[in-house]
Amino acid sequence: MAKAPFIAGTAGILLLLGLLTGYHGSVAWTNAILFASLLAFIVKLGLALWIYFRNPSSNVNRSFAVVFLGQAVWDLGKFVMWLLPDASTALIWAKVSYTGYIISVFFLLSFVWAYLKKKSYFTTVPGKVGLYTPMVLLLLALWLTDLVIADLVPPGALAYGFGIELWDYTFGPVYNYFFLWFQIIPFIYAFVLFVFKYFMTTRLDKKKQLMYLVIGSAFPIMLGIPTGVILPAMGVALPPHNNILSLIMSVFIAIGIIKYKFLAIQPVGETIVPGRKLDHQLAKEYEIDFGHSYFIKHEKSSEIAHKVLLTHLYKKRYGLIITAHNPSTIRHEYGIETTPIVWMTDTETEHLSVDPIDIEQLYETIRLFVKQVPNSIVLLDGLQFLITHNNFSKIIHFIRQVKSMVAHSDDCFIVTKGALQLSAKDERLLESEMITLPRAKLAKERAKAKQAVAKKRNYIIVGHNPLAQSIINEFEQRCIRPTIIEKGEVLVHYPKGAVNMIKGDPLSRKVLEHAGIEKSNTVVLITLEDDSEIILCINKIRQLSDEVKIITNIHNPDFIPIAMKAGANKVIPSSSIGGRMISLALTSPDIVRWVMDATTLSERGLELAEIKVDRRTPFLGKTIKEADSQLGKAGNVIAIKNIDGLKLIPDDSYKTKEGDKLILVMNFELLPKGKDLQERLKNLFACKRRKSRR
């Protein structure tokens, strides 16, 4: 990529030289100068836009774009000025040209500070005001007075030689006594800083990057200042040539930026230190495989990740660490000697570094590294730091990109949780993108939790059908052994100990008592096909116990109030979201989980709700994040159903469209009170609740 602007610039310069040497006569030379100015405009504009759109959030990219966009305007203004025969119109374009030039000179300082990550008074808000105030005053003087450009010298009045006849500037006192000499300062300052950094840095890659900037900034200083400032001040007029010098400068600096942007890190194998103790047991617990991405969810995730990585580095695998911590500290604490470490920081440092807001550079750094080495391991330690400087949605997109990349390149990507604090929804989304570690430990914890749940509650499923099968499969994953009551034959074979099967009439008092209906903390899930039988079953259960919790589904909405009156704690109407979610459980068992959680939701005053997005709802065209914000503490969007199907934990950036159906967990008592939006929400949900109770 670095070769493209270089080739374009070189080709243009060679073409220009060909014109200058291949033709003779005043017209040819004049046309050559016009062509050079137009070429400089096109190349600079292209470079400015290309660099900017590579990553608009980068300070380096933005400042480069401003500098060379200003330079491009300078070249365009001169080109048009030289073409025009009318003095008054040409003067306007002369001022346009110097507008671009003045802006580029002042913003050159910002580019230098951004590139070198230098902090100074002028990078603060008051400092920027002090720096750019003279620029604004100069621009006002340029357009409102003749203190900067007083007039134009007509073609032929200056003896350029070669028969060249072009308009030239007549400068005013502000230019001659201030800007003429001030403009030298930013160029010399940039050149000196780049040279100083070149000799001070010990990093060979940084020296290569800086070499382009040193060469680029040298052209306007070594050649431009003597020929464009000093000699004209002494009365010596040379043919216009500064656009060629600034064109060469822009090409070299663009190459330097590209090399700065995408750190071409040389993979280095870890130095093996004899006798160093490695935590192989920890590596076994946090086992990783290539082609996958992992999320270490532990309070000491950073320590664990580095220790696990070190065991793999000692197996002669290559690694790359991207961290929010000082690399020197990382090397000292974990004994990592030579493996490259990139520091996410916005301050000047001798270490390999990347600005935390420069996600594109971060991605390209990883891409170029894994491209060089198969079966390499990339460790990202500092997720909280990245999210703080960007936003969660942007970082999730970045993680998805890297995840896809390592899957195709057969590398490994490890992300640590560290001090990351997220909402439950965002954390679930993050975990869904990667494999959570440690798997063995989490499995044990889940097994204990499931066994605890199994001991706490007595689950009875009344009726056996595909819906009951889906619930039983989910129970099996949760180590819950339910009791099944079915009067017909059960042809499905379940693993030994998975269920307790009772053959009998679920409306029989004796059968219900045998199932343990009177045990404390009993939950009954009724999956019968006939609504009248369901209601009779609810009545029978309530005659035996007031404590038991009953969850049932109802096919006819008219029977919902009857089922509730009969004593059901939770009625899931087949015509509403509950019924649809249960039917989806045949192919998506996770959705059934809310059935088990429904009792907990009820205890907390929460309900499931479905809202169809249309012009009456306040959610049309809103992102999921905006919808959650509108709901406040009263609710949260947990899923969205559209033409693509049901998506659990939808992306915050998804914009709702007409016809979408939002699935929410709601506490209707917490709906905000007030006018406009709050009142519309309250009326909307009140209407939905009335319909669901009919």
Structure at a glance:
With 694 residues, this protein is of the alpha/beta class. The protein is built from 25 helices and 19 strands. Helix content is 54%, strand content 13%.
Describe the structure.
The protein is an alpha/beta fold. It folds into 4 domains: 3-261, Rhopdopsin 7-helix transmembrane proteins, CATH 1.20.1070; 281-437, Rossmann fold; 449-603, NAD(P)-binding Rossmann-like Domain (Rossmann fold); 606-694, Regulator of K+ conductance, C-terminal domain (Alpha-Beta Plaits, 2-Layer Sandwich), CATH 3.30.70.1450. The chain is 54% helix and 13% strand. The strands form 4 sheets. A 7-stranded parallel beta sheet has the order 6-5-4-7-8-3-9, with helices on both faces. It has a 6-stranded parallel beta sheet with strand order 12-11-10-13-14-15, sandwiched between helices. The chain has a 4-stranded antiparallel beta sheet with strand order 16-19-17-18. A hairpin with a 2-residue loop joins strand 17 (635-642) and strand 18 (645-648). The radius of gyration is 36 Å and the shape is elongated. The protein starts with a helix and ends with a helix.
Largest sheet: 7 strands, parallel
Distance N to C terminus = 66 Å
Rg calculated over all Cα atoms: 36 Å
Pick out the low-confidence regions.
Answer: 1-8, 11-25, 575-603, 689-694
Task: Output the CATH topology of the largest domain.
Answer: Rhopdopsin 7-helix transmembrane proteins
CATH class of the largest domain: Mainly Alpha
Strand portion: 5-15%
Overall 3D geometry?
Answer: elongated
Number of helical runs? 25
What would CATH call the architecture of the largest domain? Answer: Up-down Bundle
Mean pLDDT: 79
Domain count: 4
Helical amount: 40-55%
Number of beta-strand segments: 19
Counting helices, strands and paired strands, the structural category is: alpha/beta
